[in-house]
Amino acid sequence: MSMSRRRFLTAAAAGSALVVLATQQATLPPRRARWFLFGTLVDVELIEPAGHDATPVLALLAERLQRLHVDWHAWKPGRLGDLNRALASGLPYVAEPSLLALVRDAQSLSQRCGGLFNPAIGGLIGLWGFHRDEMLAGSIPSRDAIERLLDADVTPDALTFDGDTVRSRNPAVQLDLGAYAKGYALDLAQTLLHDHGFADAVVNAGGDLVASGRGPGRPWHIGIRHPSGRGTLALIETAGREAVVTSGNYERYRVLDGRRYAHILDPRTGWPAEAVASATVVCADAALADAASTAISVAGEQWPDVAVAFGIDQAMVVTADGRVQFTRAMYERVDPVNLRARAVSVIA
Ligand code: AMP
Ligand code: MG
Hints:
CATH topology of the largest domain: T-fold
Order of helices and strands: EEEEHHEHHHEEHEEEEEEEEEEHHEEHE
Bound molecules: adenosine monophosphate, magnesium ion
Number of domains: 2
CATH architecture of the largest domain: Roll
Structural class: alpha+beta
Radius of gyration: 20 Å
Shape: globular
Number of helices: 9
Strand order of the largest sheet: 3-4-8-9-12-17-18-19-20
CATH superfamily of the largest domain: ApbE-like domains
Distance between the termini: 29 Å
């Protein structure tokens, strides 16, 4: 039976781009937990091996993720806020190890894609009004204000590291790790579960997901939602440990005079990236998939070059005008639930 014709009994996390689908063949139900973190619902499903109660590890995981949520928050008080204040005043900042690793890796990922993923544009993201829980009504930033920030030439290349001390040569650098920290946290979450003996798990943070092992009696099935929110576009069955991460310009946006201004910004222009509605990346590493899916969203028609730059062979893009584009390796593994009527092409 094709995966698309199986009957789906549950669909997790309303509002997320990805859903974990359970089938009728399911035997023992997986253990579940859900928290609201990183601005989204975080759902965990795992298989408890006989005699292994996941309660303590789920409590530990909740505590760790809550800590990272606070430490890495782009605009609320926390360690990243402290770091940003130091960078703005040219002062050295001694970073705690997980923040240091996050920032170092973000710098190198940004370099790999020519700065389309640019975690140093926190000032610009704030200027556009995205450093808030609720989107603001009111006007968009002036062209002058955007130009001033572009002229400041903010890139993470300005960061220098000396042991655990970080400083910036450019005081306009403000880190916003929103395109990438969630993926990083998901990798840490999967590793923690694995190290505690839970090898079969899915951790799904509303669009960013890492699966490992197998679901109850069969592989995990992941549904990739259409960016319009209408139904599932495609399904994939994961094997081993795999991240499936989607960036969508439909996730957060402001509407002014009937026009949408989405939260993924093109660091070259200072304006929202508009050519891509959603970009899904599959690879072993969720942090890489997260940075790459954002960079692919920014790249528009040139996205296959970005996938190559990141060493990613499985990606799917829905363009703003509704075309669905695949890399060959992605096309070959997805079950096209809802692609028949769409303009589908394999372009990389
Ligand atoms: P994602 O959903 O992973 O694509 O992340 C989007 C978030 O990343 C936005 O809400 C911003 O906080 C931040 N962001 C927007 N544009 C960029 C960009 N070009 N590079 C890095 N981070 C960005
Ligand atoms: Mg991302």
